[in-house]
Amino acid sequence: MAQYSTVNLARNDLISYIVFSCWDNTAGPTPKRLWAGSPIPDHSEIKLLTRLVLKTEVPHRDHKSAHIDCNVYNLADLGVCAVSYLFTGVAKSRIGSRIFCLILVCRAEHRARYMQWSSIIDPVVKQGIAEYKVKLHQVSDRSVYWYT
User: Fold this and answer.
1) Which residues have C-beta within 8 Å of that of residue 83, sequence separation ≥ 6?
2) Contact, 37 vs 11, CB < 8 A?
């Protein structure tokens, strides 16, 4: 059973779904929200993708870094291309500093087209993450995950 909320993604031919997740020191990589069109991806695919990105990137990340790291993954087994945005957020609440990840997923056959659009998509995503980090720092409870 999925432990994250799902929101409808506006129909488009470029991005299949978006996953927002975080690194939890107890549970490891944890998906928190999914934006998906139709069909909704399988829960095991979401977990695999989240685990792959966060377990690959977290050990190499400076936990105090203010940078937003962007990486591209070609996942032939799943037939997708995933673009991840890894960042650290600091909340006033008890959760303190935490590593978050936003993953944009497109079908493998749309990879070249996504890369053409990436010069427009990338700054918009990074601006949204910067705004999220500001909101995250202002809240004092666990609602931090629902600012997405």
Assistant:
1) 70, 71, 72, 73, 103, 104, 105, 106, 114, 118
2) yes
- What phi and psi, each to the nearest 5 degrees, are found at residue 15? -100, 120
Tokens of 58: 């977290």
Q: What is the pLDDT along the chain (148 residues), one digit of tens a residue?
A: 356 666 777 677 788 899 999 887 778 888 888 888 777 888 888 988 999 888 887 777 776 777 898 999 998 888 999 999 999 887 665 666 788 899 999 989 989 999 899 999 999 999 999 888 888 777 655 555 544 4
Element (H, E) at 15: none
Instruction: State the SS3 of 23-73.
Output: EECCCEEEEEEEEECCCCCCHHHHHHHHHHHHHHHHHHCCCCCCCCEEEEE
Residue 140, Cβ neighbours under 10 Å: how many?
10
Q: Domain 5-147 falls in which CATH fold?
A: Beta-Lactamase (3.30.450)
Q: Hey, what are 141's tokens?
A: 């409870």
Secondary structure element (H or E) that encloses residue 12, with its range: none
Whole-model pTM: value is: 0.84
CA distance 110 to 106: 6
Task: Tell me the pairing of strands 28-36 and 69-75.
Answer: unpaired
